[in-house]
Amino acid sequence: MTEQNDPPPTARRRFFGALGLAAVAAPAAAFEVDGGTGGLPPARESEAEKRKARYRETDHVRAYYRTNRY
Amino acid sequence: MARMKFLCDSDRCIECNACVTACKNEHEVPWGINRRRVVTIGDGKPGERSISMACMHCTDAPCAAVCPVACFYGTEDGLVLHDKDLCIGCGYCFYACPFGAPQYPRVGNFGGRGKMDKCTYCAGGPQQDNSAVEYMQYGSNRIAEGKLPLCAEMCSTKALLAGDGEIIASIYKERVQQRGYGSGAWGWRTAYKEELPA
């Protein structure tokens, strides 16, 4: 039996309502259809840029070669 | 100039499929597409061999030769990349490729194949390096970060080699000189009754 001095349950409902809204809105805000370009066309590499050599022999790559000799 | 290549040491590959999993996870490859897969010959029989296969980035790529919209392009270090904005999903490259590398998401209506997807050697595509758009279309660009393809870096037995063709060939040569022709794997004489030549 409910006592007269209990707070009305509307506060709790508002809390869960807000929680539900956040659960829907947060992923929608994080998901960007244009890939994060702000609506602008994505920057593309020029013909020369896209054909240039991409490989660099960094320390990371040298470590890979070294460990593969074991 | 370095020439990028893949080399799979079939004596070391244990068919664990870590390369396949690493590739799918790194690039968030959609369901139904495998840019890399492990092929086993003589599965379950003595002397079985497994090799990890993906786009081999051919010197004279047949996929590029048959593409009606010329969406393929080669880089100076020997990679064969493609532009998904140009691809019309005709499927010619799939028929031309001797390795079965081109894959299609088949998400369109009326049996459309969708944009072709294949191994990029972790080098992205024609979009700006390491941009969100490039990641969405082609996956991560590890080469631009000064790394090598994750499939090869993740290989637990170091069977899958990637990098400068001359260097990985020398690594493989050292292995063959050390273990002799055939497998030097522990247990082969016991399990398969195979003698290792000196």
* Span of the ends, CA to CA of chain A: 76 Å
The geometry of chain B reads as globular
Strand order in the sheet with the most strands of chain B:
1-6
Number of helices of chain B: 7
Task: Give the proportion of residues in helices of chain A.
Answer: 40-55%
- Structural category of chain A is mainly alpha
Please describe the biggest sheet of chain A, giving its number of strands, its sense, and whether it closes into a barrel. Answer: none
User: Averaged pLDDT of chain A, please?
Assistant: 75
Number of strands of chain A: 0
Global structural class of chain B: alpha+beta
Strand content of chain B: 5-15%
Q: What is the CATH topology classification name of chain B?
A: Alpha-Beta Plaits
Give the assembly state of these chains: heterodimer
Sum this structure up briefly.
The complex is a heterodimer of chains A (70) and B (198). By secondary structure, chain A is mainly α. Chain A has helices at 10-30, 47-51, 59-68.
List the helices and strands and how they pair.
The complex is a heterodimer of chains A (70) and B (198).
Chain A: H1 10-30, H2 47-51, H3 59-68
Chain B: E1 4-8, H1 18-27, E2 37-41, E3 49-53, H2 62-66, E4 72-74, E5 80-82, H3 92-96, H4 132-138, H5 150-154, E6 160-164, H6 165-179, H7 188-192
Antiparallel strand pairs in B: 1-6, 2-3, 4-5
